Amino acid sequence: MEWLDRLYLFTVLDAVGLGLLIVSWIGSTIIIENAPKSHRSTSEIMAGYRRDWMRTFVDRDPRIFDSQIIASLRQGTAFFASASMIAIGGGFALLGNAERLRGVAQDLTLESDPIFLLEVKLLVLLLFAANAFLKFVWSHRLFGYCSVIMAAVPNDPTDPKALPIALQAGEINITAARGYNRGLRSVYFGIASSAWLLGAEPLILASLVTLLVILRREFASKSRHVLLNGAPDAET
Predict the structure, then answer these.
(1) Percent helix, strand, coil in the chain (nearest 5)?
(2) pLDDT (tens digit, 0 to 9) for every residue of the chain, 236 residues total?
(3) C-alpha torsion angle, residues 64, 143, 76, 42 (rounded to 10)
(4) Separation CA 85–CA 39 (nearest Å)
(5) Do the Cβ atoms of 151 and 64 come closer than 8 Å?
(6) E strand or H helix at 205, and its extent?
(7) What are the boundaries of each domain within the chain?
(8) Interacting residues of 20 by C-beta distance below 8 A, sequence separation 6+
């Protein structure tokens, strides 16, 4: 079967579902990271708290508490990076045994897609898992950079270098958290992409539900309301 012939195996709904999935994934990141200051996302609100953390860090003695927080953040990124690796390995295992997956999908949908279609659908899921892995690994590394910069902050809070170095650590911390959140969104939409195995309609529904859940958590959740009470300014 030629590649052009294989493309005809996909329906218009498949194209709509895949397009909606990708647009929702990329669009949610753009909306969350570029929200107006009048209605900041939860992630941007937390960025202000991270900057305040570094200001407080300068005067804290001892600073063991701060090192423990960084260690816990690195553990979280390491856990999700490992989970993403397992998902990638499982995905490749399924690619080598797509016939069995075809039987499961047929049991659930009463339809039987060609093996090529199942492999493409699995590859989409694998791409999300791979992107999540890369984001988590980079976030883990940035949290490591942050811990080194924090260690370089002079013990004397009156030292003129103390606050500038601490603020540098804060910006690295924020960048690491941004990568971590992007990795999580890749996981969310990767899970949504698995609905494609059941058909185009489930993929469209899963993409919309995932997008709504993410936006609600960032802009309309109870935790965001709590964070807004006394939240620091975005760039101060």
Answers:
(1) 80, 0, 20
(2) 555 566 667 889 999 999 999 999 999 999 999 999 889 999 999 999 999 999 999 999 888 999 999 999 999 999 999 999 999 998 888 877 766 666 555 555 545 567 778 888 889 999 999 999 999 999 999 999 999 999 999 999 999 999 999 999 999 999 999 999 999 999 999 999 999 888 899 999 999 999 999 999 999 999 998 998 866 665 54
(3) 100
(4) 36
(5) no
(6) helix 200-219
(7) 12-228
(8) 203, 204, 207, 208
